[in-house]
Amino acid sequence: MYGLLGLPVDAIDFETLIAAMDTAAAKREPFLISTLNVNFLIKCQQNVDFRDSVLSSDLCLVDGMPLIWMAKFLQVPIQERVAGSDLFGRLKARTNTRLRVFLFGGTGDLAARVGEKLNAEDGGLECVGVLNPGFGSVEKLSSPEIINQINASGADLLAVFLNAEKAQAWLMHNHHRLTVPIRAQFGATINFEAGTIKRAPPFLRSTGFEWLWRIKEEPYLWRRYWNDGRSLIQLFLTSVLPIAIAARVNSARSEFDVNPKESDGRYTLALSGSAAGEYVDRLLPFVDKAAKEDRDVTIDLSDVSDADGRFFGLLLGLRTQLAKRGLDLHLAGISPRMRRIFRLNRFEFLLTGR
């Protein structure tokens, strides 16, 4: 896992992702997937609850070429766009393994039509239930009748087709009530699968201009893309560019070291040197130990001179694992320089808790 502009991102390919999904289906354990695009990035800067839903995810996939470009600019090794629509298509095309899917959302009878189509094709997805809950609040869409219908289906995968904010809020609201192991928001995939909206040609998707095609197909989206585009430019100028320049100016890195301490029921990792690049992996055994210890964790950054996306990714992963057990991650010894690095990378919330 890496940290990218306040978000966790997993640098994995489709093969690894689908294998993880098959494992989660077999274990019947909750497995939340978030597919991050520019809209997700911008909403996470503006909405704390939305950001928390992403931070709580088991896998965060990069579904958006602008994010991949910025990741490469910041030396975060995201090599492949893992789009929700492509994931759905690959699952559907499999012949050796089949997942049972429940389709939740969509307008009109789209989910029912796509479900019939999936079962007629006899591919890698078997539709075991569909439900268009209509409009309403997250609470209204979380009635016992709705949750019971989803759980009774015995599905392996819950594919949600609500708008991003409502979908993430609904998934978090019902996290402990749902028994379907794999949950993900697939956005406009339902429209592509039903054929009501044509997806952009592959060359447009690979060059990052899919948004132009989406506006052609759905003209009302122009306002969202306009607002997201302006915010993205601002992020690039105020965060991405300064981080990239600083990394090239301060290319010399000091030796990284970890000093673990245990006292007063708390596990403390005192770090020194440059928490960046290949050095960061030296922290992995200590982070794994900290995640398994039944105690709160403090990371002392008093003697740390630098940090990058890999370090922030480790922090996010540890924070999530501790939070699931009701434990706390505390960062101590924050110098003005480190505070600036956290702020530029959009991870200042790790210092304040929100």
Q: Nutshell version of this structure?
A:
With about 350 residues, the protein is an alpha/beta fold. The protein has two domains: about 1-230, no CATH class; about 255-350, STAS domain (Transcription Regulator spoIIAA).
Task: Supply the key terms.
four-stranded mixed beta sheet, six-stranded parallel beta sheet, 354 residues, Transcription Regulator spoIIAA, single chain, 2 domains, 16 helices
What is the helix/strand order?
A: EEHEHHEHHEHEHEHEHHHHEEHEHEHH
For the sheet with most strands, the description reads: 6 strands, parallel
Cα Rg? 21 Å
Number of strands: 12
Strand order of the largest sheet: 4-3-8-7-5-6
Count of DSSP helices? Answer: 16
Give the overall form. globular
Unreliable stretches covering 5 or more consecutive residues: none
Helix content: 40-55%
What structural class do the secondary elements suggest?
alpha/beta
Overall pLDDT confidence: 89
Strand composition percent: 15-25%
- N-C termini distance: 21 Å
The count of domains is: 2
Question: What can you see in these coordinates?
Answer:
The structure is a single chain. With 354 residues, the protein is of the alpha/beta class. The protein has 2 domains: 2-228, no CATH class; 257-352, Transcription Regulator spoIIAA. Helices cover 47% and strands 20% of the residues. It has helices at residues 14-27, 38-46, 48-55, 65-73, 84-93, 110-121, 144-152, 164-173, 189-194, 202-207, 210-217, 222-249, 284-292, 309-324, 336-344, 349-352; strands at residues 2-4, 7-9, 31-36, 59-62, 99-105, 125-131, 157-161, 182-185, 257-263, 266-275, 296-307, 329-332. The strands form 3 sheets. A 6-stranded parallel beta sheet has the order 4-3-8-7-5-6, with helices on both faces. A 4-stranded mixed beta sheet has the order 9-10-11-12. Helix 3 (48-55) crosses helix 8. It is globular.
